[in-house]
Specification:
Distance between the termini of chain B: 45 Å
Shape of chain B: elongated
Largest sheet of chain A: 3 strands, antiparallel
Structural class of chain A: alpha+beta
Order of helices and strands of chain A: HHEEEHEE
Largest interface: A-B, 30 and 38 residues
Number of strands of chain A: 5
Structural class of chain B: mainly alpha
Oligomer: heterodimer
Shape of chain A: elongated
Order of helices and strands of chain B: HHHH
Strand order of the largest sheet of chain A: 1-2-3
Number of strands of chain B: 0
Largest sheet of chain B: none
Number of helices of chain B: 4
Strand content of chain B: under 5%
Distance between the termini of chain A: 93 Å
């Protein structure tokens, strides 16, 4: 089905920047758009935008010009490319903080439960089982030879 | 997306974390007070992870996670484990409050 969205040409903001496949792979992990100003004859010009990234241990730069809309589009593409990593980092941090809180909760709760005859099995309170009564001598499992 | 996340975090603070914290601060027993505060923080963190986990699952499903897909997938099981532990904790707290 033809819709208005289908008819709008999709323009890749990274197109025209002479990026190799290796560059695009590197940009999937890092890279940023820097805003710079230039001073000439005492006057401040700009802002100018540059795309910076690192590949094979070397810094690479592409000039984006002074079009703020283009710079914003490149920033959006980078944010989209970096999202999985940012998400993984954020989730890992939240899980680490949650586990630390769990440990503190357990430390606080353990003595309280101990005083009531419970113990923690993982995070579940269990009551200590009373000791089993001694087995009467008559029911001993001795083997008699008849 | 950002706005939706901010709304979620605000609702979380308003309806879950703050009432729990208020309950904790109203306790006379210092252990209950401390525990309540820690619990409020813990439940807040677990609920904050929910939308992120859904986003991670979407990225994995649509094959948009790239090289990070494996990392994202490895974070799903710990999240479920934290959820199970929070359920266990609620049961334990009920036991403790019954006997305390």
């Amino acid at each position: 089905m033809i819709t208005a969205a289908n008819l709008i040409p999709v323009v890749d903001p990274l197109a025209g920047l002479r990026l190799t496949d290796a560059d695009r792979t590197a940009l999937g992990c890092q890279g940023f758009v820097a805003t710079e100003y230039r001073t000439r004859h005492g006057r401040r010009w700009g802002p100018y935008f540059r795309l910076h990234w690192r590949r094979d241990g070397r810094q690479h730069v592409r000039y984006l010009g002074c079009d703020a809309t283009r710079a914003q589009a490149v920033r959006a593409v980078l944010a989209d490319l970096h999202r999985p990593q940012a998400l993984a980092r954020e989730l890992a941090q939240l899980q680490q903080r949650a586990r630390a809180r769990l440990r503190r909760i357990k430390t606080l709760l353990q003595p309280q439960l101990d005083a009531q005859g419970f113990h923690l099995h993982g995070y579940v309170a269990r009551q200590a089982r009373p000791p089993s009564p001694p087995i009467p001598a008559s029911t001993s499992l001795e083997v008699h030879d008849d | 997306m950002q706005v939706a996340r901010l709304d979620h975090d605000r609702a979380l603070a308003q309806h879950l974390i703050e009432p729990l914290r208020r309950w904790a601060l109203a306790q006379e027993d210092p252990v209950s007070r401390n525990l309540g505060a820690e619990l409020a923080g813990f439940f807040g963190l677990v609920h904050k992870m929910g939308p992120l986990v859904h986003e991670a699952l979407d990225l994995i499903q649509d094959d948009r996670g790239g090289a990070t897909s494996a990392d994202l997938l490895s974070l799903i099981e710990p999240y479920l484990q934290l959820g199970r532990r929070s359920t266990d904790l609620v049961r334990t707290l009920r036991t403790w409050r019954r006997w305390a």
